[in-house]
Fold this sequence. Notes:
Elements (H helix, E strand, L loop, with lengths): L3 H50 L12 E9 L4 E9 L5 E10 L3 E6 L3 E5 L4 E9 L4 E8 L1 E3 L8 H13 L5 E5 L2
Helix pairs in contact: 1-2
Amino acid sequence: MPNLHQKIKLTNVRSTIIKTVCILVAVVMPFAAKSQKKEIINILNSALKYELKHQYSSLNFDGDSTVLLHGFIIDANGTLSVEIKKTLRNSEGYMIEKQSVPLNKVAYVIKDINVIVESKNEDVVITTRYFYKDGRKKTETRMSNLFFTHLHFPNNEQIGNRLVKAFKIAGYNVEKTYWYD
Length: 181
């Protein structure tokens, strides 16, 4: 049976181990989160670049050509954004659309027509600038709970799985709900 001096020594050792583990977790977690934010960007950008490269040869091509102006980024405030350009129907001009959502507001990754990052409230800011052939310009800003990634090729559920995993490791509680191809 340990004496009092040995019990105190064991308690001090345990306390030191617990403190060391806490310090390591506090130091390592921000690096892991930053790494996973980069992973979120990499997943989205590589998938979108692949789809855009093959959009014209895809059976899913709907006639709307999409050009990536600014790939997915996560800024210093933790906001995910992307900016694309699309030709307007009937060749009336084009539109530039920028979407952004704070990562801490993302709740779900889903797929309907395309892969969507969804917030519980209307936390997604969508700014659309229209440029018409006749010289007119128009800008609209609206709020939504849906952040469209423009990823719509079938059989891409692994993207949703990878995104959810990256969000979780980065410290965000995100779920993948329905996935319709």
